[in-house]
Specification:
CATH architecture of the largest domain: Orthogonal Bundle
CATH superfamily of the largest domain: Intergrase catalytic core
Number of domains: 3
Structural class: alpha+beta
CATH topology of the largest domain: hpI Integrase, Chain A
Length: 450
């Protein structure tokens, strides 16, 4: 019986070797030769010395090829048990791991994925003009810890990116739901891996996307408390320990600006009847674009504008920040705005509690603090206070424009004169709505009183 068969495929000669066990020829192997004599010489050399590397493929001997054929024949013959087949598959997988490029470690991949400086995902998004803040990358990077805790030290060290399956993600979700954190944080911890896995699948770093069909936890947002007009007025009538915090809270109540937008304000942003909101502040990215990435103009009461200008004159650093901080080129601490709001609320509220519940001052103050927390009052609540009050005096489109709400319902092609018309409508609404609330706190122009 012939040991091999030589045949021409196109212009190249191929060889098949006969396997006496299976009584079949192996698959053809290219000799890389176009002449029969040279092809025969190559095959004889393979039989004697083993097959040389051809076109980048590893050396293979005829004996090795026959062994491969014997293995395939044995598998196809059905002479092996199911357990033996599984053992062979496991062993083959282990050997394959040493032959193919190793899948990156799962935890290491996540940490790099959310590293603002080194992430290919973040670089890609930024190159396409999408916004991606360094603060958000740090938030997501911190959530990798949930996956480390879920896997445990040993498993976290050996788990590869390709090892994360849909079942493993669902198992994580069940685990994280029992960690005593809010649904929003549970979803964030899941997304920490899900976004990375989806990106890896799209770039064929893993064979399939395990996040397809992934379900999320239903949100259970705690509604922020909103002060009523009488409370809002009373809070600004009591003494404040920090003038910057008082003015910042008053500005938030009468403009709906976010805390970061207020802290980023400089004198150049204050006009005669409006504030230009084009920056926001956080401790990581410093002075950056606003949350929506867009600029807007917000009406400001004349008396509040005067307070801003007076406060700016007290800035010892002369760096332009109205709500100046301890260090040059940095505004005040965001937490101080809430801390002073809570203190003012307690100062205003405790006498009422003492009278209603017949309590001593110390106990009444303690109950006032508990009420502040129970009602979920926060600095951001001023934004809800502003929008809910002004919404009754003007139309939704104007509220969206002034408050800086990103909405699909808002067209991007509004004309400039329409925007100015909306601004004037909002300006009148602000004066009309807040005169009753803050009439004792700030002065209102006579023409606004109608």
């Amino acid at each position: 019986m012939r040991r091999f068969s030589l045949y021409l495929r196109g212009k190249i000669y191929y060889a098949k070797f006969f396997d006496p066990k299976t009584k079949k020829f192996t698959s053809g192997l290219s000799t890389g030769e176009t002449r029969k004599n040279e092809a025969l010489a190559a095959v004889y050399s393979w039989e004697k010395h083993g097959r040389e590397i051809v076109r980048g493929r590893p050396a293979t001997t005829p004996e090795g090829l026959l062994t491969y054929s014997q293995i395939i024949g044995a598998l196809e013959a059905g002479n092996l048990t199911a357990q033996q087949m599984r053992n062979i598959a496991t062993k083959a997988g282990e050997i394959l791991e040493t032959m193919e490029p190793t899948s990156p470690g799962f935890i290491e991949f996540l940490k790099e994925f959310w590293d603002f400086e080194n992430s290919p995902y973040i670089r890609e998004r930024l190159s396409y003009g999408h916004k991606f803040g360094e603060g958000w990358s740090k938030t997501m990077g911190a959530r990798v810890k949930y996956w480390e805790d879920f896997l445990g030290p040993e498993a976290a060290a050996r788990t590869r990116l390709k090892d994360i399956t849909a079942d493993k993600i669902r198992e994580f979700q069940q685990w994280v739901s029992g960690q005593g954190i809010a649904p929003r944080t549970q979803n964030g911890a899941t997304d920490c891996a899900a976004v990375a896995l989806k990106w890896a699948a799209e770039r064929e770093k893993i064979p399939a996307d395990p996040t397809k069909g992934l379900r999320k936890f239903a949100p259970n947002y705690k509604r922020r408390g909103i002060l009523d007009p009488a409370e809002a007025r009373g809070i600004f009538l009591v003494p404040w320990r920090d003038e910057r915090a008082r003015v910042a809270n008053l500005l938030a109540a009468t403009t709906g600006l976010r805390a970061g937008e207020i802290l980023a304000l400089k004198l150049e942003n204050v006009g005669l009847d409006r504030i230009s909101v084009n920056f926001s502040w956080n401790t990581i990215e410093k002075r950056k674009s606003t949350k929506t990435g867009e600029c807007r103009e917000v009406p400001i009461l004349e008396s509040v504008r005067a307070e801003l200008l007076a406060l700016a004159k007290k800035n010892p650093h002369k760096d332009g920040y109205i709500f100046y901080g301890v260090k040059p080129d940095e505004p005040a601490n965001k937490e101080s705005l809430l801390k002073n709001l809570r203190t003012a609320f307690i100062e205003f509220t405790w006498p009422r509690i003492a009278k209603e519940q017949d309590q001593e001052e110390l106990k009444a103050r303690e109950l006032a603090r508990e009420e502040f927390t129970a009602r979920a009052l926060a600095f951001h609540g001023w934004r809800h206070f502003y929008v809910s009050n002004i919404a009754s005096a003007t139309d939704q489109r104007t509220v969206q424009q002034i408050a800086g709400h990103k909405s699909a319902a808002m067209s991007e092609h509004y004309a400039n004169h329409a925007l100015e018309t909306n601004f004037q409508k909002a300006s009148r609404a602000v004066s009309e709505v807040f005169e009753g609330t803050f009439g004792e706190v700030v002065d209102f122009p006579k023409e606004a009183r109608g």
